[in-house]
Design a protein that fits this description.
The complex is a heterodimer of chains A (222) and B (695).
Chain A (H helix, E strand, L loop, with lengths): L10 E8 L13 E2 L4 E2 L1 H12 L6 E5 L4 E8 L2 E2 L4 E2 L3 E8 L6 E8 L2 H6 L5 E5 L10 E10 L3 E6 L3 E2 H4 L6 H4 E3 L2 E7 L6 E7 L4 E5 L3 E4 L5
Parallel strand pairs in A: 2-8
Antiparallel strand pairs in A: 1-9, 1-11, 3-4, 4-9, 5-8, 6-7, 10-11, 12-17, 12-18, 13-16, 14-17, 15-16
Chain B lengths: L2 H4 L19 H6 L51 H17 L30 H7 L10 H13 L3 H7 L1 H6 L13 H18 L1 E5 L2 E6 L2 E3 L2 H5 L12 E10 L11 H16 L12 E5 L3 E7 L6 H4 L1 H5 L3 E10 L7 H11 L4 H7 L2 E8 L6 E2 L13 E5 L2 E5 L1 H7 L7 H4 L6 E9 L1 H18 L8 H9 L4 H23 L17 E2 L8 E6 L4 H16 L9 E9 L4 H9 L8 E5 L3 E5 L1 H10 L3 H17 L1 H10 L5 H8 L5 H11 L12
Parallel strand pairs in B: 15-16
Antiparallel strand pairs in B: 1-2, 2-3, 4-6, 4-7, 5-6, 7-8, 10-11, 12-14, 12-15, 13-14, 16-17
Helix pairs in contact in B: 3-8, 19-20, 23-24
Chain lengths: 222, 695
């Protein structure tokens, strides 16, 4: 069901490695903080702005499924105002699978003059994402693998991206999204002190798009 | 809908009555001297034998359904039959065939022995002894066994005002009589078949126009005119004649985005139930028993299965709008197909169709029309939301609410749900008791059910009575032609009764279950949501209560669904915690997918979690008995905590002669030591003198 479609842009494929990462899922109440298993566009946009100063990066990331497992970390935040620890939280995070040294994965960045300029050689780039960064979580080592021209495929989305970022992936929401699974992702404003929530498509969305975004193929009719 | 159909008539046409003759015990009538009875239709029966006249109700026309194949048929029909009567009759024929499971399948070699075996009573796939059990209670499949009772049947056809009258009056007989009495077609109770027939009939009737041009009667739907069943519905899946009428079967899984932060947020379950009931009630347009634009074939508290016309005629979003307006979203599977290809297992039908065409999808599409789509239906949600986002649903803007000095941001829908009431208020009264609280959730996996019914049917074909004489090819043909729709409807109906019985046992609301001793005080159990029997909260005043509850559940499962114990689509999750333990965590546990094949999933958050197949559960309950074993397990648990899995395992193996039960559980029942210890920690052992109702 895949074919090459000229309208799809090319992407820089970055190889990533990390020892532990916790990209939290927004959840109300409870003492459990689940984490997501892919890197949403909103997380990478913030991360790349912080490290490279570019606002318009559009990128999405995936961890290799056979390289990680979910683990739990219990943590009691300290409330300095009253000088005591708060109720302990159980934080879910991704750690390397038993017998594997590091979590591996790929980040796809829409190719442009700026991005080619930044990721232009075999150097390693260190960036940090997600929660608990001050405790050592989320340190990512990135290295350019190649520039890729994806094929199109119809199937279930395996990442999280804002609808407004979809065009950068060659996806026209009206034409290519067959059935959306909606949620919201945050977009900070110019000064990064506020922002708004934008409608996003989440895993399970059925669409036609670049093959790296698609997990299970959609076997049914449109 | 044609205007002629709207003409008020004194009596409605009740399609369900077309098969009332199947409730007649012909042999008994013959024994009582009425010898001119045969078959299950009574249009040729000499009514003067009973001293009565033919019923005047239009429902009487249903008796001609067996020989009415086309609108062109002129002879052998009542003289006063009008166009509407003919239309109703043909639509009954179409609905009847669609509703039947495999009973209209004709397979090679049918004339040979083995095909004509008639068994008394229905043979439910998941409960083969159901009819025998009912017989023991004094119930019988037939409703009409004497001339007087037969007279009563004709009077009833004349007087019946609605399908509900019929189903209520002959409830027991309808549930014990199969739609087709021959093996292996005897698996669907007549009631389920007629319920399905009636629902399909009314949807067809609503959307059909009668066209009579120069005496040529035709029925028109979606600009397609037909005069006979094959024209409308098409052939079986392995035949080439294409049906003109396309309808949709849609399975809707109702989802909600809210996370449960306070107990009041559980009201979302009540709201979901209310909206589903509204959709079910709305199908009966102004209570007209003849027409409905769509039909809810069956539903549970989170699932709807609907039949409706094509999208250009009726949009599914309009039907489920009550749910969408309250913020629910729908995950659906839509099968749009010729009538004769509509089945509850659309994926299987699609695969079959492609396979028949040697894997060529486009060739399959040219020959027959069958499309299967999956997707989501969403309420209107904004593209952009200015913060703050609603804390609970995260799909609308939140407004500030302060309660108990805690600020929360809630959208109007989530706030409305909070205001619906205080479910499980009684839990706060238990706080002084310092006892453990048990959250129980029963669930039914619909997809697993559809798959499992096929397996059960295959098993029945291979091992059912008389099937050994049937040629292998014919058996394969039966298996291929099985349509689980009616069986699924019946299963869900029984699942509801099963839940109600489980509730009666826990709440001691029925004396019939008094032998199932569960030591729950009447003030120590609550069903937080009205009319929702899948969720229960229980205060554990005694340690053995959890074991008693699991035993009762298993025992009930064994009674209602004895053939479904392995890979059962019904599951029980139990989460045990201190009364102050956050209920969000119990809920999160219930939302996690259960391992395939496991029936029981138990946890004490953070310490013990165990998933068990029913055979493993049974082995654990039967083998973990007595104080000595309890002491040994306790020691093993200590060793495991202090010295690790391997050391505990070695110790268990060293003690295999003294405690062979542990060794057997590990090797025969494929349980890990971890599972055994977790189960022991949660449920304990049974004392040897404890009277078991688990066998």
């Amino acid at each position: 069901m895949s074919n090459n479609r000229s309208r799809l842009p090319s992407f820089l494929r970055l190889h990533l490695t990390t020892l532990a990462v916790a990209i939290g899922e927004r959840v109300k109440k409870g003492t459990f903080r689940p984490c997501v298993e892919t890197i949403p566009t909103s997380t990478l946009m913030g991360c790349f702005f912080e490290h490279f100063g570019f606002r318009d990066f559009v990128a999405i990331g995936f961890f290799d499924e056979d390289s990680y497992q979910k683990k739990l970390h219990t943590y009691a935040p300290f409330d300095s105002a009253i000088g005591t620890a708060k109720l302990p939280l159980v934080i879910e995070y991704l750690a390397p699978k038993d017998g594997i040294k590091e979590i591996t994965g790929d980040i796809y960045v829409a190719a442009s003059d700026e991005t080619r300029c930044i990721f232009n050689d075999n150097s390693d780039y260190l960036v940090s994402i997600g929660a608990m960064r001050s405790k050592g979580f989320g340190q990512l080592r990135l290295r350019l693998k190649q520039e890729v021209q994806p094929m199109t495929k119809i199937g279930y989305l395996r990442g999280r991206l804002r609808e407004n970022d979809a065009l950068a992936f060659g996806i026209d929401p009206k034409r290519d999204i067959i059935s959306p699974n909606y949620g919201y992702l945050f977009r900070p404003d110019m000064h990064r002190i506020s922002g708004h929530y934008e409608r996003a498509i989440l895993p399970g969305t059925i669409l036609e798009g670049p093959d790296f975004l698609i997990g299970e193929e959609y076997q049914y009719d449109r | 809908m044609h205007d002629a159909f709207r003409t008020p008539r004194s009596k409605p046409f009740i399609a369900e009555l077309h098969d009332i003759g199947k409730l007649v015990d012909v042999s008994a009538l013959k024994r009582s001297g009425l010898d001119k009875v045969k078959g299950h239709t009574y249009h040729k029966f000499d009514l003067s034998q009973l001293g009565i006249e033919a019923p005047a109700s239009p429902s009487w026309l249903g008796q001609w359904h067996d020989e009415f194949k086309s609108l062109e048929k002129k002879s052998g029909l009542p003289a006063n039959i009008d166009d509407k009567g003919r239309a109703c009759l043909l639509l009954t024929v179409i609905s009847d065939r669609l509703a039947s499971t495999i009973s209209r399948t004709r397979v090679a070699g049918e004339e040979k022995p083995g095909f004509d075996r008639i068994l008394e009573g229905v043979n439910l796939l998941w409960r083969p002894n159901y009819y025998k059990e009912e017989q023991m209670k004094g119930n019988h499949w037939a409703a009409f066994r004497t001339p007087n009772e037969l007279k009563e049947m004709f009077n009833f056809i004349d007087d019946c005002e609605s399908p509900e009258d019929f189903f209520t009056k002959y409830k027991i007989s309808l549930s014990l009589t199969p739609e087709d009495k021959s093996v292996p077609r005897n698996i669907i109770p007549l009631r389920t078949h007629l319920d399905l027939t009636g629902k399909i009939f009314r949807v067809l009737l609503y959307w059909t126009q009668i066209n009579n041009e120069n005496g040529m009667l035709k029925l028109k739907y979606d600009n397609q005119e037909i005069t006979s069943f094959p024209q409308a519905a098409g052939g079986r899946i392995n035949e080439n004649n294409k049906g003109k009428w396309i309808f949709r079967l849609i399975k809707c899984y109702v989802r909600f985005p809210q996370s449960i932060a306070r107990l009041q947020d559980l009201n979302v379950l009540e709201l979901r139930g209310e909206m589903i009931r509204k959709i079910v009630d709305d199908q009966k347009l102004n209570g007209d028993p003849e027409c409905q634009p769509y039909a809810v074939l069956f539903n549970t508290d989170d699932f709807l299965c609907l039949i409706l016309p094509r999208e250009n005629i009726l949009d599914i979003a309009d039907i489920v709008n009550p749910l969408l307006q309250k913020g629910f979203w729908i995950e659906y599977e839509e099968l749009e197909a010729e009538l004769n290809l509509i089945t509850s297992n659309g994926a299987k039908a699609r695969e079959q169709l492609i396979a028949i065409n040697n894997g060529d999808r486009s060739a399959a599409r040219k020959k027959r029309y069958l499309e299967l789509r999956r997707g989501y239906l969403w309420p209107n949600i904004s593209e952009i939301i200015e913060p703050p986002l609603c804390d609970l649903c995260q799909q609308r803007r939140g407004e500030r609410y302060i309660k108990d000095q805690i600020t929360e941001w809630l959208c109007p829908i989530c706030y409305g749900i909070r205001k619906m009431g205080e479910p499980a208020k009684i839990i706060s009264e238990w706080e002084d008791a310092e006892k453990q609280v048990l959250w129980l959730k029963v669930s039914l996996d619909q997809e697993q059910l559809a798959r499992y019914l096929q397996l059960l049917f295959d098993k029945y074909i291979d091992n059912g009575p008389g099937m050994a004489e049937v040629p292998l090819e014919a058996r394969e043909e039966f298996k291929k032609n099985f349509r689980p729709l009616a069986a699924q409807m019946e299963f869900i109906d029984q699942y509801r009764t099963f839940l109600k019985e489980f509730r009666d046992i826990l709440c001691k609301e029925n004396e019939h279950f008094s032998q199932m001793t569960i030591d729950i005080q009447t003030d120590a159990i609550t069903y937080p949501i009205k009319n929702y029997n899948e969720l229960t909260v229980i205060r554990l005043d005694k340690n053995e209560i959890l074991g008693q509850i699991l035993d009762a559940f298993y025992s009930l499962l064994q009674r209602w669904f004895p053939e479904c114990l392995e890979d059962c689509p019904i599951r029980l999750a139990a989460s045990l915690g201190n009364i102050k333990y956050p209920y969000q965590e119990h809920w999160r546990f219930f939302e996690k997918p259960q391992l395939s094949g496991s029936v029981f999933r138990l946890q004490q958050p953070g310490t013990h979690i165990v998933e068990l197949k029913s055979s493993q559960f049974l082995a654990l309950r039967n083998k973990l008995r007595g104080d000595k074993l309890s002491h040994a397990l306790h020691q093993l648990a200590v060793v495991e905590t202090d010295a690790g899995d391997l050391t505990a395992m070695i110790q268990a193996l060293n003690q295999r002669k003294r405690f062979p039960e542990i060794f057997e559980l590990m090797w025969q029942n494929k349980l890990s030591l971890r599972q055994i210890l977790d189960f022991y920690s949660l449920v304990g052992t049974r004392s040897k003198e404890m009277t078991a109702h688990v066998k």
